[in-house]
Amino acid sequence: MYIYLPVALTSINMFLPFMAGFGVGILSGLFGVGGGWLMTPLLMMMGISPVVAAATDANQIVAASASGCYAHWRIGNVDFKLGIHLLIGSFTGGLIGVQLVKVLRALGNADVLIKISYVIMLGIIGTLMFIESLSALKKKKITKEEAPSTQKEKKFNQFLKNLPFQTYYSTARVNQSMISTILLGLIVGLLAAIMGVGGGFLMVPVMVYLLEVPMHVVVGTSLFIVLFTCIEVTILQSVMNHAVDIILAILLFLGSTIGAQIGASIGAKLRGEQLRIILASIILIVTIKMILDLTLTPSIFIAPKGGH
Amino acid sequence: MREKKFTVCLTIFVLLLFNIQKLWADSFEVKPEKIVINFTYHGAKLKIIGQGNCAGKDFIINILSTHKEKATFKKIEKVANLIWMKTGDLHFENVPFFYHVYSTRPLEEILTTKDLEDHNLTFDTLKKEVNLFPVKDENQKNFLWQEFIKYKSKYHLYAYEVVPYNCKGEGQNQVLEISIPWPYQAPPGKYQVKIYEISGKKIENIDEKIVEVEKVGIVKFLTDFAQNHALIYGVFSVLIALISGFLVGLIFKKGGH
């Protein structure tokens, strides 16, 4: 059945966004990422303009992350204190990042550097995460869920822990300096704003490897952060671009809220290193896709301004 | 006296000619004149109906939005001989948002190149009216214009197509019927429908009609809401998303997951 989307100004088979939402919702519930990297191109393939696709996706993520966050909270996987501290950092980082982008663009050729750095960074994160999870799986360290780290990382982690304003994150069961948590949130927010992405792919590894939070709590807490980030983006996109299509969003979150619940229950059955290796594989696939997008000759040599 | 007679005759001849010309023009009909976009809208069919001698003739229908667009695009260029990137802004001014041409045979078989150019019936001739900037030279302008056509065609906003037509009946009582698909991508607004009647590579008659595309019901309400009360709309969208998320969470909890 076809329905007309009032803001996207196009007609769509309602089954398509429902299925796309369901698939992305599972990933969201499993790994605590928003899934904008997958949903926005999928919506564009359905004939939605890039601006409306990006804005409506943010609205969809609000529902999926609320659903996923609720599911994780029920099983005790959301550390609200940690989430709030990271949010304070990432909001501030986002504000600084937006200004920094303007300065970088004024210097010229910044977009190329940003794009290349993002691909390299994702590639490194994905590869390291993959290698670490693979070795953890091989060693079958299943008694205690702990993110393994190298000596160098341990030294850095120790430095972060020794900073002042120590606090105990009870759900995550880690002692950390509030300064290091807010600082890491700020760096993720800064990078996300510069690179024009949601930040889930960066936030998850930071929590796992630098803050040493157990993987299951990382997923729940990351969803809590994603939820608030996307509330802000949805309202900003509505006010500034009039680009949120509520009908499309409803179709998407009909699927994604259910998907997020299923993702969360699948995640609860998997071990931390299993979750990490699947996420690492997805990050690597996204990296390869980005490399192909950047290097393969496009079919059309112009693109509308706006969107991702 | 002779001159007076000649002037009267000439006037009568011109009036007569004009009326003969108008015979077709007055009898062309476009159905529907108003296309309504409701919740289940998925495009429409536009019918061009005419009465008169249509056997052996050709027809061209040019549909274009009355609203001219100012569009900003980004060029995609290879940077540092390495990667494809969106680069500088590219502005297209005075372009119709929607431009479709339908003909009963390939255009070049129906009309001369000059006539096609004079009446703006090809994408190339349309380019002359467009203000495209910044461009280095004419070659780059041509290239970017072709890319613009590709982009518009991808979203069914620009198209050229040969369509079949039906000519039934005898002599002056013949009935012409041309059915044209109206794409759902055409946004609300007014569209000019120009119908060209052609015989022997000569335009015999041109008629113009207006088709209006309008949103109604919930589609209109939501568009107005998004445009005129953007902040409330944004908050409303967030609330719906939050309620849906938690509601599904509760349902799953009750379901025992």
Describe this structure in words.
Chain A is mainly alpha-helical. Chain A contains 11 helices and 5 strands; from the N terminus they run ββααααααββαααααβ. Chain A has helices at residues 15-31, 36-45, 50-74, 80-107, 110-139, 151-161, 178-195, 200-210, 215-241, 246-269, 272-295; strands at 2-5, 10-13, 166-169, 174-177, 302-304. In chain A, the strands form 2 sheets. In chain A, strands 1-2 form a two-stranded antiparallel sheet. In chain A, strands 3-4 form a two-stranded antiparallel ribbon. Chain A is globular, with a radius of gyration of 19 Å. The two termini of chain A are 29 Å apart. The model of chain A is unreliable at 142-147 (pLDDT under 50). Chain B is built from 7 helices and 13 strands. In chain B, a hairpin with a 2-residue loop joins β12 and β13. In chain B, α6 packs across α7 (230-254). The radius of gyration of chain B is 25 Å and the shape is extended. In chain B, 25% of the residues are buried. The interface between A and B is large, with 61 and 64 residues.
* Mean pLDDT rating of chain B: 86
Biggest sheet: strand arrangement of chain B? 2-13-12-4-7-9
**Helix/strand order of chain A, N-terminal first:** EEHHHHHHEEHHHHHE
How many E-type strands of chain A? Answer: 5
Largest interface: A-B, 61 and 64 residues
What does the largest sheet of chain B look like? Answer: 6 strands, mixed
Q: Which shape of chain A, going by the Cα principal axes?
A: globular
**Could you give the distance between the termini of chain B?**
104 Å
Strand order of the largest sheet of chain A: 1-2
